[in-house]
């Protein structure tokens, strides 16, 4: 029997409770996104704050790093560069400009810049070298002092001993007077290497001598970047522990824990195998059907 309280009050209570139920159900159920996230791109392991595609990783990194057809790419205002390695223990990654020179092959290359607002900075291992520069270049202005004279002879002579210098119109073992080990006036935030302004044909970056400073064929060419690792949070750790990958969703780019089937939640993927199996949805429908029948019976009883 129905308790001796107002039927109108009962109906009002049920009507007010149903929106709350719908809200809770919508918050718990995962929201589908386009595609899914992966923990590798080609042969490179992809971990937070990086992601394999849009909606994966942290949004501050997604605009710079993405996986394109199995190749992890890094984008700046001057071009798209391949990511050849990520060292998560030291929070560093190596990028390679496809037009950058190396000992085996030298060619005319474009400029390089690093966005000042990006979560990346140059590491101290980089040695930028400008090749085939005009003798009238501002690099050689004594008042500017942009070339590191101590390193110039060793590094420049090593590079100019490479057969690849013919690719930029120089003879092998050419005088290093057109070479500059470049020291940027801006080291902490942002970086710009403007080759047309500096009147140089090409550039390269050496981040390691490979244990043999005298053999430029063993040098490691590329640009070493340090990334900000302070983005890792407890909610991301919980997501990864549950088997998900950390990402973001919505216009506000709010946190999302992305499950292997491409759906996501706002916390973690614990229990999602049960919820997405169809069992949870059938229980929801049964509860709603029961609530609807109860409401219909109460209305008829007036």
Automatic annotation (TrEMBL):
Record's bilayer topology term: Single-pass membrane protein
Residue ranges that the Swiss-Prot or TrEMBL entry lists as coiled coil: none
One of the record's GO molecular function terms: polysaccharide binding
Keyword Iron: no
InterPro entries recorded: WAK_GUB (IPR025287)
Keyword Iron: no
Subcellular location: Membrane
UniProt keywords, alphabetically: Membrane, Signal, Transmembrane, Transmembrane helix
Residues spanning the membrane: 6-24
Main subcellular location of this protein, as a coarse class: membrane
Domain Wall-associated receptor kinase galacturonan-binding residue range list: 37-96
Organism domain of life: Eukaryota
A single cellular component GO annotation: membrane
One matching Pfam family: GUB_WAK_bind
Entry protein name: Wall-associated receptor kinase-like 15
Organism: Populus euphratica (Euphrates poplar)
Encoding gene, per UniProt annotation: LOC105121624
